[in-house]
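Our platform keeps sequence and structure together, in a single record for each protein. This encoding replaces a full spatial description with a residue-level series of whole-number codes. We quote a single record here, exactly as it is kept in our systems:
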Amino acid sequence: MENRQIIKDELTKNECIYVKHKSGLDIFVCEMEGYSTVDALFGTKYGSVNTCFKTKADKEYTTVPEGIAHFLEHKLFENEDNDVFELYAKTGASANAYTSFDRTCYIFNCSENYEESLRILLEFVQSPYFTQETVDKEQGIIAQEINMCDDNPDNVVFFNTLKCLYHNHPVRINIAGTIESIAKINAELLYKCYNTFYNLNNMVLIIAGNVKADEVLKIADEKLKICEDNGLETVFPKETDTVFQKEMVSKMSVGIPIFNIGFKSEPGSGYSGYKAELEATVASTALIYPSTVLYKSMTEEGLINTTFSSEVFCGDGFFSVMFSGESEHSREVYRRICEEVERVKVEGIDRKIFENVKKSMYGAVIREFNGVTSIGSVILNTYFAGVSPFDSMKILKEMTYEDVMKCIIERFDSEKSVISIVEK
């Protein structure tokens, strides 16, 4: 019997079962009585930024082409005998996968036969099959995907922001890589990356909904291959705390010019890094809350519309707060935001707005734990942040006005801000 741990939030009474499986895999099971569906996520701490790495078996660091994590995700769905989607079609499950900057995740959801779908998931992710012929074919497919991304204004304005913010960090490169970088990928490199990052000690399985932990762990015992921890280390090029350039403008076919404004600050990790992310989310939301003078005045003057929003974008080695939207006067929006940040540093944000934003975020987190799909995403995000599944509730509950003001003072520096514009 595996050593099980019940992780529970005392306030909401939500709980999940955690097991460190003998294979090395971390497993989270959320038994949700009364639900009819099941969602499963099988993820690895391997994303587009992980281009330089070594294991304890390597003498030197290996550097691989940009886009290889995304390329590998595509290729895992093909094995020597059949197509994985055909297997899922027989169980009635819907399957998907994605690669982001810091992770790759394989997903299925279903309303029946979850046991067989889980077997398929664990089998194909552990069964790579690459040949140079199939790699050559995939290069053409992904090249088309890259071209489509390059023709997407939202994608262009976002990555131009990252190129302005960061000098060297690979977050500035498209997740799919470039036409030139994927041309360097071969079967040998794919196996090297697979054997390095798809070690079960670097992965997590999360399954929620109409499931039983005993059944899940029995299938895990059947299908998981015991892995020795390979001592994985990843490194990034040295990044300065300054921005690379203040502005970047691209011309594309857009109805209204779009913009991204980014504020760069020191990256964090673990509990303190996750706390900083939530504080920055509250801070950025409060700064442009609909009842603020800033938001009202910019709306009345036609500088912004309902697309105006903020987000915190952070991960391994990077942290930024972004504001985005549509405007014929993007630079004026940028100036107003920087001006408001400096005012707030002296006068403070509205305390009532702070409380409203904090309560709204707390309520949103509680709602996420009541959905089969959303609870898996929450656990995945906290896992990759290096914190407990319910830490977001704890952090928000304990967050003070002073915490958020400190965040604004330290993380909203106009000297470390940039603007990216896509105009007609």
